[in-house]
Amino acid sequence: MLDRKIKTTYYVNSIIKDIQNQFIREETTSFSDSKIERQYEFPDGAIVKYEWQNEDSARKGESFNHRFSLIKLPEPNEGNFELGIIKIVNY
Predict the structure, then answer these.
(1) For every residue of the chain, which 3-state class applies, written as one string?
(2) Can you tell me the distance from the alpha carbon of 28 to that of 10, in angstroms, rounded to the nearest whole number?
(3) Residue 84: exposed, middle, or buried by beta-carbon count in 10 A (0-12, 13-18, 19+)?
(4) What is the pTM for the complete model shown?
(5) d(CA 53, CA 64)
(6) How many domains does the chain have?
């Protein structure tokens, strides 16, 4: 069985390090000076939503700097992944 931690780390590091040959599509869905939201599609079909917000925005709502959420499961889903947050980086 696939180790979930290894796979989620792969997704997150691919996005953080901007390793473009490890994902097949990147789409900015929201952009402002205080918040950015992007979606990344990986070859296994997984889609990860990346969210960034500045410190002022974090004080007004949910407190995070970077958040990564699995919004579409990989196929096949060998790691029995579930949709939702896979990593949060706080201030």
Answers:
(1) CCCHHHHHHHHHHHHHCCCHHHCCEEEEEEECCCEEEEEEECCCCCEEEEEEECHHHHHHCCCCCEEEEEEECCCCCCCCCCCEEEEEECC
(2) 20
(3) exposed
(4) 0.90
(5) 7
(6) 1
The confidence score (pLDDT) of residue 1 equals: 44
Higher local confidence (pLDDT), 39 or 5? 39
The residue segments making up the domain with residue 34 are 4-89
> Over the stretch 55-70, which tens digit does the pLDDT of each residue have?
888 777 778 899 999 9
Instruction: Say if CB 40 and CB 50 are below 8 A apart.
Output: yes
Within 8 A by CB and 6+ apart from 59, the residues are none
